[in-house]
Amino acid sequence: MSGDEFTGGCQCGSVRYRIRADHLTAYACHCRECQKQSASAFGISVPVMLSSLTIDGETASWRRPTDSGSHTICHFCAQCGSRVYHASENRPGMVTIKGGSLDCAVDLEPVAHIWTRSKQHWVVLPDGVPQWETQPQSQSEWMELLS
User: Fold this and answer.
1) Alpha-carbon distance 135 to 31, whole Å?
2) Which of 8, 82, 101, 109 gives a 20 to 30 Å CA spacing to 58?
3) What's the structural domain count of the chain?
4) Residue 145 placed within a domain
5) Is residue 116 within 8 Å of residue 30, measured between CB atoms?
6) Distance between CA atoms of 81 and 52, rounded to whole angstroms?
7) Could you give phi then psi for residue 17, rounded to 5 degrees?
8) Residue 100, class by beta-carbon neighbours within 10 Å (0-12 exposed, 13-18 middle, 19+ buried)?
9) Residue 28: which pLDDT band, with cuts at 50, 70 and 90?
10) Residue 133 covered by a domain
11) CA distance 47 to 96
């Protein structure tokens, strides 16, 4: 993806967002929580700085514990329930947009896979793409994943 503005929203269109960024990077999370929230084999997360995100429309949220021992605040459309983004308490100032909510996600390819110890046995991960059995443990590992 190229450009400096990316857009997306919920399934019913009540929530819309804009991201101001040079590019977007995505990773796939195979934890059970992402499998449940996406109703699929994994979730696609697109980390962005909260300051680069503008949201229009009403969202609701709930806070849940994570396998890493932290908590995530899950933001979703108050009308249709579609997940829009998550905010992790251990990474203040950063949120993860749910990849499927982007208007143009065709070029969004995960640069890494996390929580692979929970991945579905039939999911085949591509060779050469970094993967973690759980998740990156340090800020430097996260930055390596996202660069």
Assistant:
1) 10
2) 109
3) 1
4) no
5) yes
6) 23
7) -140, 160
8) middle
9) very high
10) no
11) 4
**CA 59 to centroid of chain Cα atoms:** 16
Range of the domain at 111: 5-128
Report whether 8 contacts 96 (CB < 8 A). no
Task: Kindly give, in sequence order, each residue whose CB lies less than 8 Å from that of residue 52, ignoring residues fewer than 6 positions away.
Answer: 19, 20, 21
Distance CA 109, CA 105 (A): 9
Burial of residue 112 (number of CB atoms within 10 Å: 0-12, 13-18, 19+): buried
Query: What percent of the chain clears pLDDT 90, i.e. is strictly above it?
Result: 61
Does a structural domain hold residue 144? no
* pLDDT value, residue 136: 79
Nearest 10 degrees: Cα torsion 146, 141, 90, 15: 10
Assigned token pair, 128: 């050469």
Hey, which residues does 77 pair with through a beta bridge?
Answer: 59
User: Quick one: DSSP state of residue 99?
Assistant: G
Map tokens 């997306």 to a residue: 8
Q: Residue 39: inside a domain, yes or no? A: yes
- Using one digit for the tens of pLDDT, what is the confidence trace for 56-82? 999 999 998 887 788 899 999 999 999
Q: What is the pTM of this model?
A: 0.85
Burial class from Cβ neighbours inside 10 Å (0-12, 13-18, 19+) for residue 62 reads exposed
